[in-house]
Amino acid sequence: MLIEARLGGRPEGAAAAGAAAAGAVVRLGGDGTLDPVRTRVVLDWVQYRHSFRPPVLERPVVDRHAVVEREVAIDLRRLDEAGAASQVRAAIQPGRPGTFLEGWTPLSGSCIWQFNSLYWQELELWEKVAGRGYVQALPGGESGGTDRAATQATIEELFAVWDGLTARRALPEQLTVLELGVGNGEQAKVFLDELAALDARRRCGYYRRLQYLMGDYSPHVLERARHTVTDHGDRVSTLVLDAARPRTTLRFLDGKVFFVYISNVYDNLPTDELAVLDDVVYLVEVRAELCPDTVDELAGVLAVEPQELGPLVARLLRLGPRLLSETLPGTFADETAATAFWQRVWGGLQLAERYVQLGPLDCYEIAGGLSGGVLPHLADGYGDVRFHASNGAIESFLDTVPLLHPLGSLVSHDLFVRDLAEYRAGFRGPGKYDGSVVNWVNGPLLQTLAGRRGFHVELSPFDGQSRSPIATARARARD
């Protein structure tokens, strides 16, 4: 029996719970409940207050349709030390099932991303029923912050590029800057304020030629951000777009954007997870389910049979809470009641997991036609490790960089893993932030695949946010 601890820097808080959990698993191996030869145990300290994991989760390891091994994953943050043995036993023995909402699928295909999209589409309604804004739901009540000194440095670099083009009589009349994932608009305001101030001091005339584009998936977020930058209204345009495929909307800007700013977008895009176990690469497949307690609660509140909940959730995802309440007025009095149902479903949503052998890596597409053939080299030397493929983030990056001017740059602040060893140290998602999904982004994989498209990506700490795990990715075309 292999026992691995990934404590995420919390050994003092996890030691007692970890010892209790490991002891419980060992005893189950001793009494024949588990096969110790074919059982792996992973002890995690899950930093997210809310995630899709129960405290104890059994993951079958499937090779050619047969279960060859089992992994018992334990969240030490939520494990009841006194009841560790019973929790572990309950997780690996058949019990009362919940309600499954889908069949087995790679993580990127799960219905949790439909919930994620619905959240951003109906953010205003969610916030109204929840009684708080989405920014307040983030750790520390902030979305990554705005560092004025870093913004000033970025603008100085931008002015240097424009000065050089001016000297060669090659500066275009329109100077385009793009922001994806606009938050509350504070980043845009600081950028525009600082750029206008520097332009006024230097008398370059760059500000009057500026076109600042703000793009986001949520119309509600865009409207709020637009209000923040009212003072710069004639320089700003807003666009509703898909962050994973920005060129669907912005293709007319190919080769024209001097600077792209992205904040807390990549961690909110669909991703697969992969695992290397004994030098074999597995795809993590998931299956969304409502836990039994949530099924009982919702069936009682709505006066429906438990088996009716699955179709009702599917209808919610298809129609949204407003139309759901209109089509089922006998079940939901109004859109507020339908949204309250949505929030209860989200709170009780879990993911069952299993590992399925991936097969030929060249047949697995990560994004943009780039295959998984890079994975063995990337993961070599890290032993047994589970990591994100970051498909949505890499697809977004690859679809964004063609917008850049040859001298343009892209800066992204996000939850980047800068070294694959970080995956062995702790859990990196998926987690729940209010009604959305969050995962860390595989920085080394992004760097590798960006290089294959002719771009250099540098990963560094985000110095302006001392309490935050956010890092910065800077990308430019290679010389």
SSE topology:
Blueprint: E1 2-6, H1 11-30, E2 39-44, E3 56-63, E4 66-75, H2 84-92, E5 99-100, E6 105-106, H3 112-121, H4 123-130, H5 134-137, H6 148-167, E7 175-180, H7 186-202, E8 210-216, H8 219-228, E9 236-240, H9 247-250, E10 257-263, E11 273-277, E12 280-290, H10 292-302, H11 309-327, H12 335-347, E13 349-357, E14 365-367, E15 370-371, H13 375-379, E16 385-388, H14 391-400, E17 404-414, E18 416-417, H15 421-425, E19 431-433, E20 436-438, E21 441-442, H16 443-452, E22 455-461, E23 471-477
Parallel strand pairs: 1-2, 2-4, 3-13, 7-8, 7-10, 8-9, 10-17, 18-21
Antiparallel strand pairs: 3-4, 5-12, 6-12, 11-12, 11-16, 12-13, 14-15, 17-23, 19-20, 22-23
Helix pairs in contact: 1-2, 4-12, 6-7, 11-12
What does this protein look like?
Helix 11 (309-327) runs antiparallel to helix 12 (335-347). The chain has 16 helices and 23 strands. It has helices at residues 11-30, 84-92, 112-121, 123-130, 134-137, 148-167, 186-202, 219-228, 247-250, 292-302, 309-327, 335-347, 375-379, 391-400, 421-425, 443-452, and strands spanning 2-6, 39-44, 56-63, 66-75, 99-100, 105-106, 175-180, 210-216, 236-240, 257-263, 273-277, 280-290, 349-357, 365-367, 370-371, 385-388, 404-414, 416-417, 431-433, 436-438, 441-442, 455-461, 471-477. Strands 1, 2, 3, 4, 5, 6, 11, 12, 13 and 16 form a 10-stranded mixed sheet that branches. The protein is 37% helix and 27% strand. It starts with a strand and ends with a strand. The chain folds into 2 domains: 2-95 and 271-358 and 373-377, no CATH class; 137-269 and 398-477, Rossmann fold (3-Layer(aba) Sandwich), CATH 3.40.50.150. Helix 8 (219-228) links the parallel strand 8 (210-216) and strand 9 (236-240). Mean pLDDT is 90; it is low at 140-145. With 479 residues, the protein is of the alpha/beta class. It is globular.
